[in-house]
Design goal:
single chain; mainly alpha; 5% strand; extended
Length: 172
Amino acid sequence: MATIEIEHEGAESPKDAESDDDVSPIEEVRMVVSNEDNPNEPVWTFRMWLLGIMAVVLLSFLNTFFGYRSQPLMVTMISVQVATLPIGRFMAKVLPKRKFRIGGRDFSLNPGPFNTKEHVLISIFANAGAAFGTGSAYAVGIVNIIRVFYGRKITFLASWLLVMTTQVTLNV
C-alpha cells in the first residue's frame, strides 16, 4: 500500500506543532484552501438564505420530477455549487448596500463581497435538497402507491405530513 508523506519545514514552537493537525495531507488542498478563518466575513446573509432556499426547492423538485422516468436523471449539488458562484457575485454587485433597521439591529441585503462561507452554506442547502444524491424522499413513493394502486385520494396536507415525518430522525 502507498502512504502519503507530508513534507514539513519543521515546527519552531509548540504553537506550530499544534497547528500541524490542521494541515491537509493532500498537496492540492493545501495550495487552494486556507487554514485560517476570517471571522469578519458575513455568513447569514440575505444572499445565502435566498440562494440556499432556492437550491433546496429546485433540487427537490427536479429530482422528484425526473425520478419518475425509467432512466432517472439525478441533479446533484455540484451543479448548484457551480451555478451559485457567479449568481452570488452578481448579487453582490447589484443588491443595494443600504442598511435597514429591524428590531434594533442593522440589516443589509448586501453586506459585502460574496464569500466562501456563504458559498459553502448554499452547497450544504443544495445537498439537503438533492436528498444526498439518492433521489426524492422515500415516502413520496408511498403517496404514489396510495393514489395509483389503491385508487384512494390523499390530501396534500396528509401527504406532506407523511413525507415530513418519515424524513425526520431522532439522534438519541
